User: Fold these one by one.
Assistant:
Number 1:
Amino acid sequence: MSLFKKKAKSGSTTPVSAYFSALSKAETHAVNGVAPTATPALSLSSSVTSSSEDTVLHEDDTEIDNADGLALPPRAPNSSEVFTTVHTEFGHCSNHNFRAISRHIPGTPVPAHVDQDPPYYILLSTYISYLILICLGHVRDFLGKRFHPGAYRHLMPNDGYAPLNSDFDSFYTRRLKTRMDECFSQPVTGVAGRTIQLLDRISPDYNHHQVFTGTRTRALNISSYNYLGFAQARGGCADAVEASIREHGVSSCGSRLEGGSSDLHVLAEALVARFVGMEDALISSMGFATNSAHIPALVGKGCLVISDELNHASIRFGVRLSGANVRMFEHNDMGKLEALLREVISQGQPKTHRPWKKILVLVEGLYSMEGTLVNLPAIMELKKKYKFFLFVDEAHSVGALGPHGRGVADYFDIPPRSIDILMGTFTKSFGAAGGYIAGNKALIDRLRVRGHAGPYAEAMAPPVLTQVVASMASIMGVAPPSLVSSNSSSSTLLQPHLEVEPYHHPAPAPASSLPTWISLPPTLADGSEGLSRLRRLAFNSRYLHQGLIKLGFITYGHPASPIVPLLLFHPGKMNMFHWMMKDRQTPIIVVVVGYPATPLVTGRVRFCVSASHTKEDIDTVLRACDEVGDVLDLKHGLGPGERWGIDEVCARALELVNL
Amino acid sequence: MSSSADTLSAFLAYSLKNLDSAFTKIPGSAVLVRYVKSSHQNDPGRTFLELILVAFAIFTLLQSRTRTDRSGKHFIQFSEKEIDELVDEWTPEPLAAPLNAVEVADLAAVPIVVGQNGPKPTLARQPSKIIANLASYNFTGLAGKEIIKERAIETLRKYGLGSCGPPGFYGTLDVHMALERDIADFLGAEAAIIYSQGFSTISSVIPAFCKRGDIIVADRGVNFAIQKGIQISRSTVRWYDHNDLKSLEDVLDSVEKERKKRRGPLTRRFIITEGIFEKDGAMIDLPKLIELKYRKKYRLILDESISFGTVGRTGRGLTELYNVPAAKVDMLVGSMAIGLCAGGGFCAGSQNVIDHQQINGPSFVFSASMPALLAVSASEGIEILRSSPSILTKLQQNIRVARTLLDDLDCISIPSHPASPIIHMHVRKPTSGLLHPASASSGHAHSKPSNPASVLPRDASKWDWDIEAEERLLQLVVEEALRRGVMITRAKRLRGQEMVEARPSIRLALTSDLSAEEVKKAVKVVSQALKEVLRR
């Protein structure tokens, strides 16, 4: 606590220019970097100690154990670098080359989802290994039921009760998933930032029970949805949340329509609307419920929902509740979508052939298991012709894509208001929880009154709202009423080599859109840190993606996507990959996903890149993948001739990112 | 020319020979040849027929399954030009109809709290001072507890805010596990699981267990979240009269009879009801219900969203009030957002029940876990309830104070249980007296029971209240009370989306954070407002 106060104090007394110098390039610093003489507090020695106390060391650790290479940056910061973040939460990186812009180059095609097939022997052996697992499972069940009936009692009808979960229904869980349970539901503690602390556990009985050993392991976290690195216990956003708890308490005490609304809700909704560029927005306290409780208010009987086959479970849940008809189209396949539209509009409703009341096309901006980007330009073309309504679920893409972080519309430079409904969550890029739906005022008011959440679900808690407001405002930058023009010039000064074209809606948030008790530190308030986070995320995403491809792996998804799936295929390799990544000197935790979340044969590991990762972190991941990939025979992408070695990949990162 | 033709024929002969030898090398080829020969039997017609059969089989196999409705009998073939015309012709309805005047006024009248919500909040656009908040859920006054705020801030400084992941993928924090243990211990259940939103909890718990073909017997007055859970489960539903255990028993008997008649297999069977009903504050007779469910071999899914944290000596809910072990309730669902002024919901039950949800609860699996500081706030809330039973005593005392004043009013009827922390008030018609579905169905002996397959009770056709008029009246009461400094609310409903339209009501939510005197004063204001508006 005291450490933190000290840091906050030094932060507030430090001139803005010192922060700027830290974030700008070395030569820029040489021009205006006279900060050390002006602020003796930031001399070399004190800067190093302050960073080792405030931004490197944290929690209760008294000595720095850097054996895993995670606690300290690879080199000590020099006098020109001032970091305001804790390295384990948000990595220190001041090299301005390691930045990129996330945007679509007009005229280039949007890659559809491509399934890259592995060699046949991989496919065949994958099928065979599932076959073996299934056969073994049935044999064990057969024998088990006869020799250990006690262990099967809960799966059998018992005393007039049908089993909660029959042995047939739970076969997959018991016989396949249990084998790899160590990859799932790993409990953690602390901030889900650049690194995360695992609560070590072992299983004495083949994953039926997990026992905690009481120790902790810090691991490089390339699994959390922390795209912009706002999962932080220190810094401007956390300070704002602390203030909000003192000011507003922890709970809103009720639903929005029945006494749970606060001024903070109103303010946050206005800011969200401004952020995504829509007229109005509503906020819901849970991301899943944002879809499941509001889609039924949009469509109903006589309406048709056209849904991408890989849409998230919450969308399916909501559509099922709505009672509307549903048709699916092949993932991101615009040709199939058009054919389907022509069919359903010409045929009308089934049997009666009456025209559909409305047609709602539901797509996601960025698909969480594939990393594909929706082909929004093509959908907008179709929308003009076929007059359907468009709902884009930006759960993963908002904040993570686009030169201004405003999501997939920003990425493709499509005016957001040409889309009918933009939905997104705060769990991912904003380090908060819950979700929003944005659209025109009439629509959002209708959802406030007709959506299930309005009268029945608890309103979002004030601390969560504050995290949303603070993180969004720091991405947008806050325009002080008197300093509108100087603010825009300072942001261009900050990024001299990355010009952004003039863009219609993303303007800084007016100071009036923040509660008076929030005071963001200067780097957050002027948007410079937000911008640098966007650029770092874009760099890291492209680098990891292209690096893996160059190393010879099969990956899915768009290069700009912070979600990078790497194909493993075999069920056995998922386990091994997870374990081998975790068991390194610098432990890395990964998410492995297999059937039923993916098709049977395309088991994969899914990396989620964050702005909090440094280039060295991505190097570490690539290096680990390279070694593990050789052992597990995972390199089936590029031919051996086109591949690069790991050292070459790390050295030529900039080239890869600009591919 | 001829030489090239020769080489070609030689090559053909060579490759044919090779093919032939290769074919004979395939295991089983001899069998095939023998079969074709024997089936040919010098009858080319027969071979031809078989070839057609094979071709047909291959054709059927290649037919895509998704194209079935294209070739269905309702499919009309259009030319491309016709389709273009139809596309041009089609005009969709607007996505959302603008709000009407009543809805606009309702939305504008929603009270907006400035700063901390609590027993005496400051409201936006409200000149007069609020002397009591009887609208927000702050039953045990946990919302204002400094200790909870301190613990929340400590947690924030250790965990940040969001968990940035679903529970399966590094979203399970130690504080989540601690809260699950706290809830299980508090209730006396074997285990518990937490969901990140109270409202979504039960609509996820139900489909995790109830599948197509299973049988659900549910109360006609269950809340909206349960209705949605039942809808998504696709199970067979039978309804019993609101809070009427006799009707429940009849329905259970009829289900059993039906099963015996059809000789159906043994399927999972559930009774779904609420502890204290969100719709009207009625309370179930838990011991009787439990006796019944054991006798009929049903599992019980009990929604204690309102009763958890508000009734019982220390707020453990109905199980404490009736002194029934929580382990006898198979799935006990509650809300930390309502009962503990934190966030999220939980389901408590046996380890088996909890493990099952960790893989099958849709909004558990597919949603990010709840923020750490909300989990810690909930744990702290439990600790406070556990250690200071006086809070609950005070809440019950306040409820009694309110009920004594309200029960005397003849312009309203109160369907809520005397111990319920929420008090619903209906407009009472001067002529018809008590006419609430609960009291109506249990009070008057019906010659015929309601149809269990229909959610509407038998007497639904006799319901003579005018929803719009009553809502308008009650809204006037709400505004009148607010003018005098007491914040209350109508029970907001999704008209047209609920399975049974609930009768319009004003819902008071009592709190232990006000003194008995303050409650008395506030309720007097409310009854004044009621009298003035309803007797006009």
Number 2:
Amino acid sequence: MADRLRMVEAVRETLRAELERDDSVVVYGEDVGRAGGVFRATEGLLEAYPDRVFDSPVAEAGIVGVGVGLAATGLRPVAEIQFQSFLYQGFHQLAQHVARIRSRTRGTVTCPMTIRTPYGGGIHALELHSESFEAGFAHVPGLTVVVPASPAETAGLLTASVRSPDPVLFLEPTRLYRSFREEVPADHELPLGEARIVDSGEDLTIVAWGSMLRETLAATAELDVDIEVIDPRTISPLDTETIVESVRKTGRCVVVHEAPRTSGMAGEIISRITEGAFYYLEAPVERITGYDVPVPLFAREDAYLPDADQIEGGIRRVLENG
Amino acid sequence: MPREDIAQFTIRSVQVLAEDGTVDEDLAPSLSDDELLDCYEAMKRARRLDERAISLQRRGELGTYAPAIGQEAAQVGSAFAMDEDDWIVPSFREQSALMVRETPPQRILEYAMGMEEGADIPADEHALPPAIPVGTQPLHAAGVGWGEAIQESPNVALTYFGDGATSEGDVYEALNFAGVYGAQTVFLCQNNRYAISTRLEDQTAAETLAQKAIAAGIDGVRVDGNDVLGVYRIVSEAIERARDGDPTLVEALTYRRSMHTTSDDPSVYREAAEEDEWEARDPIVRFQVYLENRGLLDEETKATIDERVDSEIADAIDRANAARDELDPADMFRHVYAEQPPELERQAAAFERKGDSDG
């Protein structure tokens, strides 16, 4: 009984299913209750589960920090931070406590918390509503960082995140919230830490996630090249093996992300390719990324975001090289 | 619309046991003789641990340590007010309270020896590990108290922090969350007058720290933090209110008689005369006079208690040293995630081969 859902609906139906399945799940965040979230990702949940869905004060450190306590009492906090850049106000709680409490207590105190937050650009939002600080979060040991790229993937990965024994930061590309529908199976759970081979191919590997996967598929559809497209889905801990195996096969690779270039995930991924597939490479690995500038206000946003043309250019350069 | 007063607030201060050892009988909590002596012994144990820890650190056997000398009444009195299943959410100076909650001193020493084993907490202890970043843990206690309320459990969370922490935004967020959600939480601010070197008047223009509760819409009260009976009474009342979903901020006015940590030298920023003044107000001395006057404590009992806490702490030191000798460095890889991710497995294997060229 698969429904055709948009990504934002997949978030909502997954939360509804997890609230129904597990009494320990609590959902809270700014405007998630009566308003149903600014993107309506939690619409109707307060009415259905009035004792476990809460509007929270406007306090991101608080939203993240109380999760440590909720989890200690045996609950599974699922918090929403309204936009990713506002998580900077809660970053200290995330890095100092949520992500490290398991390690610092040798596994005796854990924090199975999910923090959902809309991220990335492309919806002409206000300043600081379009950030992709994914690599910064990926740099925090103990945290799992997930980025879904479609409605079905959202349902499968969010289900796994809520059920995970570890804290998960679930980054929802705002641009994809309402961009397309997809069949979403009921009770769909996908593994965390495992990449998906979106398209198999022999000539070149592309690694892309979130909204950039859509751009990548738009680019590859125009080309008569046998491309393997990999979506890591979990950017930390990263599934190195799937990527390295693919590059060993194709010898060529392009990594795409919306986040700024320097110290971005592409640097880490290419480093792992160098460690695991250097002698298989036919050409230098290319990265197509955002620029090392603050994400501009929306009048210049399209100039900032990598698009299908840039990805196509990267593919051509890697194919022509070597 | 004319000007009018629309809200008034007052902050009450309480003292039960005066500096001369006399007690306000109307306010005195009903503790049995045995409970009073247990309380005294807990304060002595805490003092002994701190003294030994400082000398161990000076000998190079312990890392940085934050003594609570002078704050034993605030910590022991409050911890005694808790029920068995209540939660303790400490900062990094709460060894006195933690030992009342039956945290073995060995664990406190292990943490100060730089071992995660010192924060290894059995689930039934209902404790969170020491929080190093100032003022971050009250939010965890708000979460615990809220979580218990959601689950309709009677358990209360008691969290400890200092005067400096009240300047952190997280502490206000914690008080505010607790108020909004009716969290079963008691916030105990030990105002020991100094945040490392920063005096209270440089920390805030607020007349009391208890009044920080007012903006969050919860109750605030001050108690003489060197009065173990007063702290016990006020925190007991706060805990009972918390069980009904009414959080309280308790300001225990005390004095950090020793250094902030073993890395600190208080002579740089305060006068010896001030320290002498507070030595005379020491919480253990005051309580001892009271117990002697009540005929509960004679020289023999004092000596027995001293010997017992001495040997307990000495044993704890031996056990912590033995644990350090068996420390497995590779343990750092084991608890980062519930299941070790492949990259971490690779790094752990490389660690085992450390020194090999392909590490």
Number 3:
Amino acid sequence: MQVRRVYLVIVLLLVIGVAVQCAPQAQPTPAPQAEEPPLFFAAFATPIEEPWDGVIHEALQEAADNGQIRYEWTDDIGYAGDMERILREVAETKKPTAIFGDAFGNEEAVRRVARDYPEIAFVFGSGLGPADPNLSVFDNWIHEPAYLSGLIAGGMTKSNVIGVVGGYPVPEVNRIVNAFIYGVKETNPEAKVLVAFINSWFDPPAAKEAALAQLDAGADVLFAERFGVIEAAVERGAWAFGNMSDQYELGPENVLTGPVWDMRPTVQYVIKQLEAGAYTAQDLKDFSMMAKGGARLAPFHGMDKYIPEDILALVKQREQEIKDGLFRVPIDEAQPAPEN
Amino acid sequence: MDALFLVSLVAATLRVATPLLFAALGEMLTERAGILNLGIEGTMLFGAFVGFFVADQSGSLWLGFAAAVLSGVLAGLLMALFSVTLGVNQHVSGLGITILLSGIALFAFRLQYGGRSVPPSIEAFPQLSPLADVPVLGTLLRQYLLTYIAFLGLVPLAWWLLYHTRLGLHIRAAGENPEAVDAAGVDVFRVRYLALAIGGGLIAAGGAFLSLAQLGSFTHGMVSGRGWVALALVIFGNWDPIKVMIGSLIFGGTFALQLRLQTLGWDLVVPYETFLALPYLVTIAALILAGRNATYPAALLKPYRRD
């Protein structure tokens, strides 16, 4: 058995060898680059299926696919102390040029490790500030498109009741929800916005039940900060807004649009800074906002035909004003009231 | 607060209680045979994934549901291999199975559906709406077929199986006094294997209800501790199908209630977290009250050895 397997492997290798020899000579390629692209590592506390880390992962993967960087990652590290061990291992053994990740819940560990490896760029999602010399921070500053979504929601509701289901009332969630409410009130001061939290990032059945409760209370427009809400909108025929990514496919007859976060501008900026040898620790928040393409309204996929003309015009106008720096969406990180 | 509030609350209660009832009935059967199956949480997630995957691939929700049940049966048999044949500590083997099956489900999910920014979705089971035009009943009866099956089919069936069939007698005896079962010429291993297989199938069905009926989708956190709640409901229900059903209704009711309390928009002094804790507080309180009279199956946790 053992001998046969070895024999098989040898035959296989020979076949591959023959195939390689027979293959047409590759076109003369441009001379191999003297240096391979820099190694970027990502350390995520949650699985990458979680939309927040998924957005970061996607942007890094794209940069790797374009040959700008080499990319390795690990996820689902959790908040039980493994982050520090993994970061140190990676820093020692792989010596990456940059490490991306999410620091929430692991803030101290990330900052401790970053201090010990000043030659590596640490770029982490964080609600706190950057730290010299090498720790930059970013966050999902998508309150601007959330505000634009609110403008639409206010114009769409017939019952004047709008529901929002969120995970936890942390600043990242609060400022999105508050901006959404701010938008609603601008186009429809009469509308009442119900806000429920399920205290979980990942419990779609509970999120759906919370949304159904809001629909039972008269809501006809839902803002799905979490997964599970759009399913309720589909079931009862209500309008819905996604969050974080383009979620149109979850409800092609119900999802109008929603705020989308795009980490590509942040990743590209860091790559350029490192290439230029000009990387410094800084707050990269601007690169997650609309003006620099880090946040936008999800494509309408034709759903704009349901949105009143005047509302659509206002959204377009505000969008341009935000991009031109002429309009600032207020940032309010206080916990929204259950009814607004 | 009006009639509509109460009616939709009751409807939501039945919906929320359904996956708990499936899982709790399954766990009740296995514990009745003397095996504590802590693989319940992982089996639910596994069932949710297998059900979704097969339904997505085949285009048939019922085929997906059947596959989920089958996967639960296999999970139960795996638990049986460890706890019955090998006589391993049931806490350890059960938790191991939960970790194993959760890992397999999420790994397979990534292999099949990885790299997407939204979870995959399919058209879920529709809700039945008999008497849709009758005001109150129409809302109450608007439920999934699986909810009807759980409450009107499974509960009586489990009761009948346990108390009115020879197999039920064997299961109960295997959990109370396996020596007597053996002495009567009945194979204790076989009875326990059977109980774990049936129980596993029911537990996985509870998970599949989440992915195939309630959501039509699969993501991380689908189950989010519902297996552990079901485990508590078995103790609360004192290993009796009817009482287990009542327990699932109490939990489902408070869960649905707290979400609705949040929507009332009352400006209360208590934070919303108080509402969120309500179902668990009620369950703990109920457990304390009921737990005093809990009569555990005497041979629970004891591997049977003829020595």
Number 4:
Amino acid sequence: MSENNAWKKFQSFVVNTQVWRAIFRTGIPTTPRQRMMVVLNGVFLHLHPVRLPKHAVKVKYTWCMGGLSFFVFLVLTITGILLMFYYRPTVEYAYGDIIDLREQVPLGIMREIHRWGAHLMVITVWLHMFRVFMTGSYKPPREFNWAVGVILLVLTMLMSFTGYLLPWDQLAIWAITVGSNMAGATPFVGTGGPGSSLLAIGDVNFVTSTSDAKFAMLGGRFVGEAALLRFYVLHCIGLPFVMMIFMIVHFWRVRKDGGISGPT
Amino acid sequence: MIEAIKAFINKFTNPQILFPLLAVVYVFVFPINKFFLRINERLGIYKLWTNAGGALMIGTLFSFFCFGMTDANFRKIVTKPDNVPIVGLLFLVVFFLWFAMKQAYENDARIAAGKRPNEAEDAKEKILVWPDLVYIELIALILCSVLLLVWAMSLHAPIEEPANPSVSPNPSKAPWYFLGLQEMLVYFDPWLAGVVFPTVILLGLMSIPFIDNNTKGSGYYTFKDRQMAVSMFMFLWLVLWIFLISVGTFLRGPNWNFFGPFEYWDSHKLAALTNINLSEYVYMIWMKRELPTNILLREMWGFLVLGIYFGLMPLLFAKTFLKNVFKNLGPLRYSVFVILLLLTLSLPIKMLLRWAFNVKYIIAIPEFFFNI
Amino acid sequence: MSDKNKPQKNKSQKTSKIPPRPTAPTQDAAGGADQASNSQNKQIGVTPQELQKKSAVATPIVRAPEGENVDRRTFIKWAALGWTAFAAVIGGYGTLLLRYLFPNVLFEPKQSFRAGYPDDYTVGEVNENFKETQAVWIVRDAEKIYALSTVCTHLGCTPNWLESEGKYKCPCHGSGFYKNGINFEGPAPRPLERFKITQAPDGEIIVDKTKKFQQEKGEWTDPESFILV
């Protein structure tokens, strides 16, 4: 009993210090008003509305997949930054650095978390889309947000695809060789695609192996040093940057289109 | 005995048998119109979406994997680090499919009884985000982190030999989530399978909200309120996406040949794959003469076939079994819808043509890389 | 009037143009945030009637003066010019950005190599000596020697030469090619490519990978695509 009292005293002391009050404006959220203020005042919780219809928080309805996709994205960002400390994107070092990440670096599962996290994110994104389809949540007024979601799906897959090359092992270069050759088969702008030979004046071909879509992707005629660097930059900076923008729009529109879908 | 079962499964899982079979099963499990719905109900297939049905599906899948793990060849494929996520995905897809359809059927029963869907009952009550939602999120995050950590600690991320541009591993596969696309590459040229189709898939996905103008079924699980939309989506999602990924992962072996799940991956397995173009069929086999040298003359039959497929079929459909759809959607929406539908169906059609008649290309103009 | 007066006058004009404080909430009210502005209105004591009056007074100021009206033709002209300029600038930057992706100098290995003498190759053999380093098979048949690219025409994997079956088989998607490079099975759309092959004055074979010969274009009859032996 007295112990409990001491704890309470300590608690109220902490909560009333100037430091605590400077950080957490609302105090311990016990009353409904305070609970609303917590969500309204915080920058992160502000992602949510203050109140929701009950069906919207049921796992049975949402499967948590959208939220988990975002969470896994954050995990991937953090582990990715940490991996960048040890990884050098050159043909000479890349493979060895990946091996060292497991053998020489303490806590050698950083790459494992990153790799499996990437797989997990693809799965959660797919299941999120499946849920959204099954509940008809793409219907007006959420048409645009569904399209944004499709773009985010593409970006997720592209992130995965660019990351696939970085270990510079057999798995990597052949998957990217196949993928980049598909780009080379793009109609008109790929050397192996239909119509590319039509874009010529006399004997001068505009679409050659050094000026086609595949080259733009690889920075060379085959998967080599330049491709590794391009994919590295895209994987670490370019695509995450674009993805952030689309995620902001996606979350914003969830709120602006009337919150999570529900029966009307 | 066990060997006999394995041999049977090896035969049976050959996509040339399995794919048509799945397509037939699909029609009855996800009835696209009233007619098939009645058959579905007569046969009692809807019972899949009850607790017992769910247990049956997950149980079958689980016992198949348990049985398979006793086989060395199967174990080798399934435990390959990059294939583990797909095994997980299979279970998750089956589970969530059942979970969604179960709720859909419950809601359908409520609606049929004149009540509102379950979600509407729940939605009457408003709750605070703090703490009710925040707690759920926290628990979900913790469970997800635990899963990821356990996975990361128990299984090494794949790394193979250092890159060697002169030796392609046999078989060499794309990342698993692209294996559906890689499977298409067997039947279509890269410019179609690798560029045009992915673009169409994405644009098609984005256009779903604009094509599906059914106002019912927004914000709750339902099947009967939007039977056609759900059934069609299931074909794309389960048959053309998940199934093809599984084929690419588990059934494609050395030299990209088909192998049963319990079959040894023999890189010298012979498979007759000699393929014939449509033009060769027409001129050399039916007319018994040389191919004409003029490209257009040579390929006019292919153009004719495609012209009928994309030109006449939409009109024909609009008059016959898509009459109601045409009425609901109007000409513009209907055109987009029917073109997407025909493009989708072109994949199974091409697969069947390849398997049944060894057709390689409908139109073959390798001079311009224009092969369809 | 002296120069000193002028700026002063301007100043007073400016200050007089700044609306008096109470008008600020009226703008709010016009914006439509009714609840918030209502409470503010109460604080400053502006009634709805006053509000209406104020906005009624305010509207003529917003309108453009009669003399400055632009006729339709001029407007379209300038708008078209403006948008064209805008599109041109964006397009220009886009083109530059695209060009940026293609460097002027490529640091890739030399594209031609010496491959020994014709006598090094036996008839009917597919020589794999240069497969690893140069991605080329050198094939000698009864009458000629040619250099075959080891890049599959499907998606660029490297096929394997299967001696016993007499074919090149690609492990990626199962394309098969005869010994001479003609495709016969699997998804490959066209035969393997051949490279320019010549003999140096001393008789040594030189393979130049910058020039390709494609069968479907009828280029395999080109005298540079083989050496007669």
